[in-house]
Amino acid sequence: MGEQLTLADAAATRRLGADLATLLLGEGPRLLLLRGDLGAGKTCLVQGLAQELGIAEPITSPTFALAQHYRGQLAGRSTHLVHLDLYRLEQPEAADELFAQEEEEALAQEAVLAVEWPERLSVTPAPAWQVHLLIDADGRLARVQAPGEPEAIASRNAST
Question: Which of 3, 78, 140, 153 sees the fewest Cβ atoms within 10 Å?
Fold first, then answer.
């Protein structure tokens, strides 16, 4: 994919999440790393992802719970989503530990693992899909990087 997209509104952000769901259910990693400032649309993107996975329950930011687990049905088969938010974990060791636990569970369930604030980890997990959401005058910009593609996302700490 390796491209930059303009997302005019929340509906467009959810559509990008739905498009990514199809890719995440294909061959390859089921790991999605989401970067962006507060309010950039990370949880909104996960809502579109969840809808495409057949998950009916409301998707909210797991900032205080740190992780949310969801089940859905898609084409007669169970789907699973683990939504992880590392924002409150300022120590890389704590973020690494939680990520390792949730990754193990996601692998066991064949779940999609969506991680907000992966920059809190000591090392960027690979292979993974990556999306960097930026607030723009026209809505949002999304930079999407497929697993194995050269770095398409601005530096880990970029805010613009």
Answer: 3
The 3 state secondary structure assigned to the chain is: CCEEEEECCHHHHHHHHHHHHHHHCCCCCCEEEEEECCCCCHHHHHHHHHHHCCCCCCCCCCCCCCEEEEEEEECCEEEEEEEEECCCCCCHHHHHHHHHHHHHHHHHHCCEEEEECHHHCCCCCCCCEEEEEEEECCEEEEEEECCCCCCCCCCCCCCC
Query: Is the pLDDT score of 84 beyond 80?
Result: yes
**CATH pick for 10-125 out of 3.40.50.300, 1.10.3230.20, 3.40.50.620, 3.40.50.460:** 3.40.50.300
